[in-house]
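In this section we walk through a basic example: taking a raw amino acid sequence and producing a predicted 3D structure, encoded as discrete structure tokens. The instruction is simple. Fold the sequence below.
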Amino acid sequence: MNAFSRRGACPALSAPMQTGDGLLVRLNPVTGGLAPKSLIGLCESALRHGNGILEVTARGSLQIRGLTLESARLLAVEVDALGIEVRTGVPIETGPLAGLDLQEIADPRPLAEHIRLAIDEAGLTQRLGPKVSVIVDGGGQLAMDAVTADVRLTAIRTDEGVRWLVAVAGDRQNATPLVMVEEDAARDIAVAVLRMVAEKGREAHARDLTERQLTSLASWHSVPPPSVLPDISPARGEIGSSDAVACPATLVVGESRDESSISPLAGEMSGRTEGGAQDRLPLKLSEPIPSPIGPFPLASDITALGIGLPFGSMPAQGLIDLAKQASELGSTEIRLAPGRALLFLGLSPSDCSSLQNTAAALGFVTSPADPRTRIAACPGAPACASGRIATRDIAETIAAENSDILDASLTLHISGCAKGCAHPGSAAITLVGGENGAGLVVNGTAKALPAGYRPGYDAARGVSRVAAALRSARHSGETAAACLARLGAAGVTEAYRQE
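The resulting token sequence is shown next.
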């Protein structure tokens, strides 16, 4: 370990990334989970070598913070001694209940493994950027709908059996659909997409592929995708179809980006149909994204229990105490889940209730309705040297005092600085720490220029003023986000600045 990863890269165990509170490493077990004793050992190692704070990310990765160059080396040695094999190479992600969920359309793990092997055989790992990823989603209770990827393979049940719908550049809602094929063809198309991305360089993603390249990929057809509502078609021409699965005569690999390239907004659903609606991705826009928190039945008397980390973070000792209790109750494996949660496997329903009580007493999130799930907050001050405000304290106060406005329509982002590590995308309301205190950004990111400020210690009171304005203006049945839109950025800013 002789180099740091740059910001924006993946801070793997062998390449820690410098952050405001020291070095950070991120790891994913090859098996998808850890035995309780392994998680306990990992937490103890984090206490010895880091600042004792562990995180589960929105994509379901485990992060250890506060390391030095020397302690990161010691941590890597101890991870190896614990027998924890971590993933390397291009991330090929499957759902957290893959292979266990009786409601799955298909077990995604064999296809994911075939793609890994094909990537290795093609020598693509070193040619692709660290953020390029693939999702193989078998469906079930915890599908990967909300997780973005360069390539998405989604199991679809058809009259002819299971087929895999291939889409690029996005999550389930906004990815650009290409084709629906059998498993072997899905593997080949996924690798072909990655070859095209690799040809454009290590900064490239699938969103950079041209229209001509996507059309070439889409010629690998076997089964027309089922019909969907016409107002969710992507902003591109009709994808042609043929009846046989075959490699197209000419696969366009090395094209450079030009006027036919996907624009920054391409892959978003356009709201209009340009033809070929029967060939579009069968989205479920009206269905809420499933929460990983709560019980998930796996068999007649076996349940997985999802428990969330508040704001994705928890002191190592809290995780140790929870893992010990889970082990005593008979849990055999703890899996990392997208949505900043842990899944405890092998429990009976009564054991789930007992573990939930323990988790709640330790400060974990045990209900999907917990208002803390609607807030993204980085470590902030004093944990992170870059943080200008005490993000977690502010978040806890807001969640306790204004839970009624934190409905499923609204995301609140509290960032210690303008880097926006906890939530790089836009949020309905963002508080960002700076020289002038806690700045307010409406419908933007932490990098945007704030419209108003309050002292950092008083930021939660400012949000309470916004909440009061929402309660006063909100119509019956109206979501918080819709009410905020009616108030407008100027109205929200005025409320935030009120004394």
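Looking at the output, two observations stand out. The chain has three domains: 17-89+292-368, 97-279, 372-497. The longest strand covers residues 149-158. In the next section we compare this with other chains.
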